[in-house]
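Quick bug: Glyoxylase, beta-lactamase superfamily II output formatted oddly.
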Amino acid sequence: MKLYPIETGNFKLDGGAMFGVVPKTIWSRTNPADENNLIDIAARCLLIEDGNKLILIDTGMGNKQSDKFFGYYSLWGTHSMDKSLAQYGFHRDDITDVFMTHLHFDHCGGSVQWNADKTGYEVAFKNAKYWSNENHWEWATKPNVREKASFLSENILPMQESGQLNFIKRPAGDFLSTSELGFGIFFADGHTEKQMLPHIQYQDKTIVFCADLLATAGHIPIPYVMGYDTRPLLTMPEKEKFMNAAADQNYYLFLEHDAHNEIITVERTEKGVRLKERFSCNEILT
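Here's what came back:
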């Protein structure tokens, strides 16, 4: 097995929205804001090469939305899906599976693209199976008012219309030890219904793709919950369980949204679970 970080593009989000009720005087120590109160955000995906499978976890925003839409998110940097894949000798047509932690636009927008004459949409990975779960799919295709702006039909429905959509079989509890794709999955409901966090056994390490349960290293303390979460009082016990396990089992936490910290470990302290070490992807994944 080989793992590759896939940088799909950076953007910015409102720091207050990213940290909910935590005061700016506190969160700005770890995530400094610009003059518009915006903080740096990454869309760092993960590619798993395992035998004849090439599995892509999340796909970033994509590039099919309007300039007005992207203007809300202050895109920056030069990363793209195609450039990142090419860096490791791959093309999007090589991808066998696209696993989506959840269907918010910044996680799945790159899964669908314009067709050749821009009259409609098509899947961006024509040879891949697309993976979600039934509960989350139902939640995303019939969105609540709070999340409606994050679940965009053009990002989601073409996966099903293509015939390439598949569902992960959900366990009775919150952890699936081995999924159809060969890795474990932790299911969490606080951010959105049935978000899925892959747990990948790599060499002698457990690499966990944190998605939006842990957006950045600055979000490690349990009460530091994003304003975007639909059920923050549920996020906190889910996060506490996850972070305790991460400390006790020495998980390597792959941060999808932290523009400046790629992989971290955590440890228990008198103040609770806190940051232990920072690593680049090159240090851990090569």
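Actually, after a second look the formatting is fine. The CA atoms of residues 192 and 230 lie 6 Å apart. Closing.
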